[in-house]
Automatic annotation (TrEMBL):
SUPFAM superfamilies (UniProt xref): Ribonuclease H-like
Family annotation (InterPro entries): HTH-like_dom, Integrase_cat-core, RNaseH-like_sf, RNaseH_sf, Transpos_IS3, Transposase_IS3/IS150/IS904
Domain Integrase catalytic: 144-234
One Pfam family recorded for the sequence: rve
GO annotation terms (biological process): DNA integration
Organism superkingdom: Bacteria
Record protein name field: IS3 family transposase
GO molecular function: nucleic acid binding
NCBIfam families assigned: transpos_IS3
HTH-like domain: residues covered: 62-118
């Protein structure tokens, strides 16, 4: 093997062909050394002249794909990326892969804007409404000493419904529940009212929940001691 030209180390930069051709064009403006530069950068002269001839020409097929990519990106409110756009174009009957979709996005100046993950702030201070009496001590000695309540949502097949439950912490038994299409005060109070009546209106009861204010009025009426976990602290959630 002959001695390698030191300038051929440029190929180790892994530059794209169009970048190399642009460099050759820039270096050959002063002198007619296209042949030498193409040989130096290992670019066929036919590829160099083809690139110059077709540069700036708009291909109807690619322009159609670009407009479709723009429409998909707009319909997704800016969240669609190369994979999503490629999948949508394939559903429209176009044979487009992930990398071609990324190229279309670059041509159109599209950027996938994904929403940031929500981060809950961990509060070290207790609630100003009610203290955290349990302090993660969930072992209760008898029934009707500590209840806890929470709200979740379930899919009913046609729409989302909200389910409020009240649990006796001693046996972890659901003693009251209610279901509604709105997570309001009526929902949580209905679950608490069912539990209070079913358990014979117990006294000296502690009710533990998150920072929701839905239970406040009924807890005061039933003379139930309120207990709240800290904001953004999942370890204080009994459920």
């Amino acid at each position: 093997m002959g001695e390698r030209h030191p300038k051929k180390g440029y190929r180790s930069l892994n530059a794209r062909q169009h970048q190399t051709i642009a460099l050759i064009e820039s270096l050959s403006r002063e002198q007619n050394i296209v042949k030498q530069l193409c040989h130096l950068f290992e670019i066929p002269r036919s590829s160099y002249h083809y690139h110059l001839k077709h540069r700036g020409l708009v291909k109807p097929e690619r322009e159609k794909l670009r407009q479709q990519a723009i429409a998909i990106h707009r319909d997704s409110r800016g969240s669609a990326g190369a994979r999503t756009i490629a999948g949508q174009l394939n559903q429209l009957g176009e044979n487009v892969g992930r990398y071609k979709a990324a190229s279309l996005m670059r041509d159109a100046g599209l950027i996938s804007n994904q929403p940031r993950k929500h981060r809950y702030k961990i509060a070290n201070d207790e609630s100003k409404i009610a203290p955290n009496l349990l302090k993660r001590q969930f072992n209760v000695e008898a029934i009707n000493q500590v209840w806890c309540g929470d709200v979740t949502y379930v899919w009913s097949g046609t729409k989302w419904l909200y389910l409020a439950v009240v649990m006796d912490l001693y046996a972890r038994k659901i003693v009251g529940w209610a279901c509604s299409d709105s997570p309001n005060t009526d929902l949580t109070c209905a679950a608490l009212r069912m539990a209070f009546e079913n358990r014979g209106r117990p006294r000296n009861l502690v009710f533990h929940s998150d920072l929701s204010c839905h239970y406040t009025s009924l807890l005061w009426k039933y003379q139930i001691t309120r207990c709240m976990s800290r904001r953004g602290n999942c370890w204080g959630n009994v459920f």
